[in-house]
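FORM 12-B: Structure-to-Sequence Request
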């Protein structure tokens, strides 16, 4: 996964409205359910920081990281929460700052070249009973979209990503040392698989 693609699209990404506001808010509500005012949390792949800003008030401290300098520049420019810190770093570097009570990853896992490796590092970065909360586009069953997506990828309009299936993603998280305690689809039609997993 290249930071250059995300640097190039950062301004457009920041200006783009949420495609399904109801699904987005429903997912945020479920994330907040699992967070608490005593928790120290990390968001991986935070992009331009919109979700981090919305969740910062639910925890003691939130560090939000992304490996794209342009994404972080935009995020930092519009930061308002006092307990929120942005950092430009790859996942492995950000995770080294643990232990955390919760690690968050939204619209990230399908982009990773080494998903098992990242899950192992998340596991190591969490304290005892820590939570890994993620939401991931799972297009593995949407085979009719693949040719269109491949065309857009070849034109540099979309990043490379895995066509995951929800069951396979959940299995990988379990193998990574987690117990899944909640799942959901936000929005259902993609689906955007929401998973809350507790460190075993």
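FORM 12-B RESPONSE
SEQUENCE OUT:
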């Amino acid at each position: 996964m290249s930071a250059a693609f995300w640097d190039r699209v950062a301004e457009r990404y920041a200006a783009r409205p949420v495609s399904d506001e109801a699904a987005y808010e429903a997912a945020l509500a479920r994330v907040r359910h699992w967070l608490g005012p005593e928790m120290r949390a990390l968001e991986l792949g935070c992009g331009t920081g919109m979700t981090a800003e919305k969740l910062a008030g639910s925890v003691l401290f939130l560090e939000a990281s992304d490996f794209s300098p342009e994404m972080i520049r935009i995020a930092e420019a519009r930061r308002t929460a006092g307990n929120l810190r942005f950092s430009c770093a790859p996942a492995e570097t950000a995770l080294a700052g643990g232990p955390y009570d919760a690690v968050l990853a939204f619209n990230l896992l399908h982009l990773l070249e080494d998903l098992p490796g990242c899950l192992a590092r998340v596991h190591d970065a969490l304290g005892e009973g820590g939570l890994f909360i993620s939401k991931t586009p799972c297009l593995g069953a949407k085979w009719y979209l693949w040719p269109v997506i491949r065309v857009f990828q070849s034109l540099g309009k979309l990043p490379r990503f895995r066509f995951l299936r929800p069951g396979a993603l959940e299995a990988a998280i379990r193998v990574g040392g987690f117990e899944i305690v909640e799942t959901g689809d936000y929005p259902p039609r993609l689906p955007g698989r929401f998973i809350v997993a507790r460190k075993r």
